[in-house]
Design a protein that fits this description.
The chain is of the alpha/beta class. It contains six helices and six strands. It has one domain: Peptidoglycan recognition protein-like (Lysozyme-like). The radius of gyration is 17 Å and the shape is globular.
Length: 193
């Protein structure tokens, strides 16, 4: 029996390590993130990706971006009473991708579409500033990695957060970029139900 438990444990660790494999993601441990207070699992592969922005100043260094992600998580968990940070991943001005709720967990369960989608947040305000080419490259690379590792459907769709609720997120300039992508979905009615 002990041998079986040992095998199951090793299998779990190996599979857990594969979740962010080869995506170049800064793990929660690396940015000193808190563990979630509750977990709900997404059905994968996910078909919908929601792009949003933080509507905050950009962060440009590793230390500043890690601090910004910690601050966002604290606000989401302490003030908004979310289970965890409200994004699957966040992309800093340093073009690094930070693990939020990750590939397998529901980020914010308050809206029906969140149980069918991954939220990816670009740190900054993109009403007034253009995201950098490096941030867009990091976002595209993350999406490719999600498809390659079976987290995203190969025929996934991308929408702006503003299409699903009354917000200006992901900001006018970032919204204008993602609207040109082949994965763009104009009509989101089926996801609002």
């Amino acid at each position: 029996m002990n041998m079986l438990l040992c095998f199951v444990y090793i299998l779990f660790i190996v599979n857990f390590a594969k979740v962010n494999a080869d995506c170049g993601i800064v793990s929660k441990d690396d940015w000193d993130g808190l563990t979630p207070v509750h977990v709900e699992y997404l059905n994968r592969p996910v078909k919908l990706v929601i792009i949003q922005h933080t509507d905050t100043p950009q962060c440009l260094t590793n230390d500043a971006c890690a601090a910004r992600v910690r601050s966002i998580q604290d606000y989401h968990m302490d003030t908004l009473k979310y289970w965890d940070i409200g994004s699957a991943f966040l992309i800093g001005g340093n073009a690094k991708v930070y693990e939020g709720s990750g590939w397998v967990h529901v980020s914010v369960p308050t809206h029906a579409y969140n149980r069918k989608a991954l939220r990816i947040t670009v740190i900054g305000n993109y009403n007034s500033h253009q995201p950098t080419a490096e941030q867009i490259d990091a976002l595209k690379s993350l999406l490719r990695c999600g498809v390659n590792n079976g987290h995203l459907d190969s025929d996934y769709n991308v929408v702006g957060h503003r299409q699903l609720m009354a917000t200006d997120s992901p900001g006018r300039k970032l919204y204008n970029i993602i609207r040109r992508w082949p994965e763009w979905l104009e009509n989101v009615d089926s996801y609002k139900k």
